[in-house]
Amino acid sequence: MTAIETEAGTLQKGSAVGQSVPRKEDGRLVQGQGVFFDDVKRKDMGYLHFVRSPYAHATIESIDVSAALEMPGVYGTLTGDEVAILTDPFFQIAAPPGGHVKDYALAVGKVRYLGEPVVAVVAETRELARTAAEYVMVEYEPLDVLVDARAALADGAPVLHEECGGNLSYSGVWEWGDVDAAFAEADHVVSIGELHFDRFNSTPLECGGALVEYNRGTGQWTMYTNNQFPGFAAIMMGPAMRVGLDKLRIVTQDIGGGFGNKITSHPQLVVCCLLARKLKRAIQWTEWRTEFHQSMSHGNERWFENTEVAVKADGTLLGFRTKAIDDAGAYLRYEPLGGVIWSQVAAGMYKWRNIWLEFTQAMTNKAPVSPNRGYSRMQQLWFTERVIDIVAQTLDFDAVEIRRLNFVQPEDMAYETPNGCVYDSGDYPRAMDMALELIGASDIETRRAEAASRGKLLGLGIGSTLDSGTNNFGQSQLINPELQFSGNNEVATVKLDIFGEVVVTLGTTPQGQGHETTAAQVVADILHCDVDVVNVRVGHDSYWNSHAGFSGTYASQFAVTGLSAVKGAADMLAGQMVKLASMVFQCPEEAIELADGFARIKDNHEAALPFMALGAIPNANNAGFPDDPPTMNCRYVYRPPFDVPDKERKFGNLTLTYATQIHACVVEIDPETGVTEVVDYAAVDDCGVRINPQIVEGQVMGATAHAIGAALWESFVYDEDGNLLTPNFYDYHVPHALDMPPLKTGAFESPSPFTPLGTKGMGEGGGGGIHCICSGIQDALRAAGGAIVTDSHNPYHRVWEMLSHPERSRETIEVTSR
Amino acid sequence: MEINGTSYERDVPASLLLVHFLRDDLDLTGTHVGCDTGSCGACTVQLGDEAIKSCCMLAVQADGASITTVEGLASDEGELTPLQQSFHEYHALQCGYCTPGMLMSATALLEKNPRPSEHEVKVALQGNICRCTGYWNIIEAVVAVGEKGTR
Lengths: 818, 151
Prior knowledge:
Chain A is of the alpha+beta class and 818 residues long.
């Protein structure tokens, strides 16, 4: 039996950064001592259960809650009509027409997707709340249903939000370079009829929920929840509830995975708040798995129609045109930001200089979308990767060499893309070569022949992906010029307490990314102390922790925003410790150094103040100083250097860093069944300076599992009536232990020149897995009719269809050469 | 029933699931709920020497049983079991939500099969979903405990 301890004690001082320090978080989590929202209890709390729509599209004719209210132990209910009186519709990010959407916390007058919350019931127990919900009588009048974004944009389609005058939420043309000239210069033009990126999400194991209390004396709510972007939730909730943000205290400790899916829980939180006030008791809401699948945060489904690619005879890619049609689902909870986020990686990892893309987003009778790991960039990167492989196959280029030829090269860094984004650093050819070596690509033809002898089709796939991190929120103005968001920020405080404890608070909301550990590593190096000495407060508290408008954990940014704030605060504290020591020893600050947990005189190590003395003097023993001693309580706001993008040209730097991941795989397809098996897999990551390589590798492996699941098994499938056919883990198959192929990982570091620690945000590069499995399947099918992979999701029946009718997909591709 | 060596006697509704009895009535919140179809294994506890999903059993069905939850693994002084320590060393957890279930399934495996192969570990964990790690670090952490000959 061993007690938990980190490697920190054996580390050289000043070298915690870059080490795989075992995580500080683990001790409580392996003992069941984490505190997730559902673990928080209050006396006489009421359990909330939502009555949800059984229809995808219907008017609400009547609601009768009387039978439920008469049940002993039922505390109360809330309906959409009450919500419409007590709150205003949520602020809309969209300009008109999407900006006209009236979105409330419960359905008002109409339901627009199956599973939409209609009534909330609160009762003494979970079981009773669920039972009582069955007694709420709602009469509906069903309406025609839309489950296809393309159909939603057609004339005469049923309309979800009448006030929008149609189902269009956002449309814009994005053009950079000289596209017509590129096509005039091209030797070949490859046309691709339609590509489809499927609807899925990362399904964190913990569903949504909250414990909400209302303090009648102060008019303030406290929400113990798992929302991962409290700053966003607050600016959505406050105006809707007609209260200032100081009345909304959002607290998180441990969160059971997020992956972006827990950004848009503000409607449910509003319901909890209203009921906590109405019923004068704490409200406990825990979402059930089926509810999560039906209603929370699906990823953006997207079509790419009528794509044309301009290619030179040598394989140089000059430009492309495409029409993207995005499916936002029934409400715009974070949308239409997906309509601009894709443009962070408009050209992927390639030197396309001429791009024309019409982005159109429609609302449909499906669950609202919101960010999902790789949000909106994954779709665009998948598109660029599909285009490369389709061009390669159609024009008979080698899939590896055409990538190598067109990659942005290391000597091009920092590279400005056609739309003004700046790829900060990286070596894409090196990453690809490493990935190919890890999967043994050099003898792929031998393996292909060996597989063929067993009756299997073997293919090699490559998926290149960029993980753009640290958003410039000014990009929101490219889809709605009226918005007043720009830049980004994050906050940390680092202080020295009376007994010399180093205490760090963050504005972030970690969900497994190890912020307590990596923040401690950064602080330990700056203060020259052990990692174990640094106490990082767990989770977020918008009342007591410092935070800023963009605080949260999302969009691959902690290693830049969060740790730069930590570094800034720790640097300030180190300066104050040196200053205080110089005041005590009456010597110049230059004579003082921090070392081994002391502030000491450089050439007289006997003259040393322990952290305890440095903490105690200003806090509790401060008489007699000629000047005010430093406070030892340092707050730093990190603000990345951004300008507001040019709204006319849709041009500017949209994210600060670009981490690289290149995935490669070998797949085997059974031609009898269409089942794909991933037999070899490698992911190579370059995210600049790695604070903790083990945590980075963990993110890479986890994201890869998401990608493999999405490529082969996971899909939110709707029937024509808008019923979700995959509403739980029976029908929505996520990878299990037996499903995972062998994973090899590789890494190198191209430090970012733009960030204080040389770090880049990472964690969302898993999309590379979807790209490379599509690539591998298409390669394998070359020996069996040469079908083209046009969908991101390729379960066995779709592969079987490609095997049976390869001409169907091939016919969607045309080549014009001169 | 006896849970982690302590006897409990409660009157409970017939419809109460064992997992909600553990979490809500006894405040043993280390056991988690991740689905409503018995698919995810976050609620796994040990009943006798078997790993079972506590969402698939009514509390009354466990009347008289001996149960171990994740809270019963480490010593009162916080000394971790070798399996818990191995999870820590191999970075076998990120958010930690599936971890109690993983630990209970793996503990039951190791009691029956002290040196499981990689494949045997995968089979034993196939009823436990993890959405963070991609499983390999978990599998390696369990195999490593077996190779060291300590649970």
